[in-house]
Structure formats: structure tokens, C-alpha cells
Write the C-alpha cells for this entry.
Amino acid sequence: MAPDFYTIDDLELDGKTVLVRVDINSPVDPLTGLLLDDTRIRLHSDTISELAEKGAKTVLIAHQSRPGKNDFTTLQQHAETLSKILKMPVGYVDDIFGSNAREAISTLKGGEILLLENVRFYSEEILQRKPLEQAETHMVRLLSPLADYFINDAFAAAHRSQPSMVGFAMKMPSAAGRVMEKELKALYSAVSNVKRPCVYVLGGVKVDDSIMVMENALEAGSADHILTTGLVANIFLWGGGVNIRKQNKKFIEDREYCEYVKKAKNLCKKFKDKILAPSDLAVCKDDKRLEYPVEKLPNLPIFDLGTETITEYARIIRNARTIFANGPAGVFEKEGFNQGTEDILNAISSSPGFSIIGGGHLAAAANQMGLTGISHISSGGGASINLIAGVRLPAVEVLRESVLKNKVKN
């Protein structure tokens, strides 16, 4: 069951100052520096517009990428884009908790919106520490006295124990925004009411997350089939004794994932009837798609599932009553190698079972395809897959603690 938490419905907002953590992290063109997509900004617009309509002084806290990446930039464009979406002014200050930011917050009027600078410009935001420690960071100590409530709407980052995600909730009455509320209700309902057969489709390149989910689901006996795709499949093939060839082994080694090859081998031994690896794969040669049985793979990069595997996976998915999927089946962005990802998504969409797909690339692909038969498309891959794996999400736990510590209505 979902933990109890306050929502916007529990707050008296008129004239109150509200700190709102959103996740508007967006793709940026590396050449022009312009935002390429506003999906996540639109996602939070309902929460923000509702707060404005209820007369709150709304202060938005958000991040864009992380230090060292080429899309690590300011949030000025995000403010401009949000203003267009909301059709109302959104202020922006190139400061997080300094005097300029604090002054801008103190002069807000009811119904106004202010976006603070990229919170990851603040070095302590990158650190993962316990909530009580994060509550004592400079940002939290300086901003929390200026607000009446903290609202966390950033479900996609809910698995991060960072100052802006957990620190404020330790200091002040806190609630879930509409995105957070919707995600938690859908996901907790799904994991507490699993109908059989239950199928997990796990792929992409975040192997650690996928194997954590597998271990939990298999040990708990909640999975009937685990279908492996993407880099996850390559690791299970290697762990199962298939020679995936030097080029693909090096890709795994370069990402320091060799320990997961051993884990995969052990999981295959223990749950060999439930974990499925591909029988054929598509490799890339001179930008062309070539398919081979896994026993006859050449030393070429694996970019997708083969047709035989796709057909078998689709059959299992269509017969499932509960489906959890995370990560694409291959390099779906490259022409000729989107077949596995798209056919699996079509199978999930056409299945009569309850289905949830994680955020990130798989959610983007589903949205691009305009699929309507998927029960819930999560905004957060890492957060949703952690929750499904039975891992407590730090940002959700502190919202629950806030209920115990704070009474928000008289």
C-alpha cells in the first residue's frame, strides 16, 4: 500500500509561500543550447497552475543535468517555456539561496511564480546523504524559513536523497504535488494487486536497476517471466555461456558491469525457467541491420533483438495480466533498429493486462508512437523501477514522516 502523505488538497494555499520541487530536466541541443523538448515542463504545469490559481506564492526548485555534461546549464529557457505553457509570467532569478533569491521570494505576491537557478549549481545537491543531514545544508536552512509549505512534485528524482528532495520535508509541512500523487497511487496500486501471469520486460543500459528488480521479483515469487532486452540481455547471454564477441564484451567491461555478468549467471542457475534471453539478435554492419542466432554472432555491435525473439516475447506479453517494462530493447533511435522496442511496446499496448512502463527512453518511444493501451506511463524510470523492486524512495518516506510531524489544517 502507498504510504500516507499530504497532497495539495490538504493545504490552505491562499497567500502562502510554497517551495515546489519539480523535475523539468529537458533535452538540450549541444550546438545551439536550445531546449529540444518541453514534455517534462508540461508535465508539471497542472501542479503549478493550480497553486497559482489558489493564490499561492510559488517558488520552483529544479535541476538541469549535472556537472560535467554538455547540457548542464541555467534554467532561464525553462522559465520562458513554462511561461508560454501556463500563459502567465514566470519569474527567474540566477541565484539559488543567496540574497538575490531570498529577496525575490520575499517580494512575491499571491498567484505569482518564481523559478530559482539550477539547483545542481550548488555542490551539496549532488551528494547523497541521510535526510537529517540534508536538512542542515545551507540551502535548506536559508530557504525553509521563507516558506509555509514544501511540495515535492519531482517523482522522477524521488529515489535521490539530495537536499532539495528530502531536506525541506524534514523542516516544514510537506505534501505531494499532482505528478507525485498520481505516480505513487498508480504504482503502489499495481505492486499490491499483481495479477498472474506477471511479466517483467527489462532492458536499456541501466543494468544495476534491472538486476535489482529481477532479484526482488524472483525471490518474492511475483514474476512468472523476466524478458531481457538491450544491454541487460547481452549480460545474461554472456552469463549464460553465450559468446557475445569481443566488441560487445568490451562495451560491458568499459561500463564496469562485469560484476553483473556473475550475478546474471547465478540468477540463471537459480531461476532458469523464468528468465528469458534472446535466441537471435540484430547487429549493425555499415549502418545496416543483420540478424543472427546468438550462437553465430559475428564480432559486430548488438543493436536490437532479432525477429524470432521479438515474436516470442510479444506472445508472452499478450498473454500476461500484469506487465512491468523498463528500458528500450536496443538502439531504437537509429534507423533500422527500432523494431524490437516498437514491437514490444505494441504488444504491451494490445495486451488486456495492466501495464506500467518506466520513464526515460521507453516512455519517450511510447509517447512518440501515440500508444493508448498502456495503463500507466511513468515519468521516472529510476524511481518507478526502484519502487517496483520494493526499495523505499527517500523523497516519499520524508513526505510520510511530515504527516506524522505536522498538522497542515486546523
The CA atoms of residues 126 and 247 lie 33 Å apart.
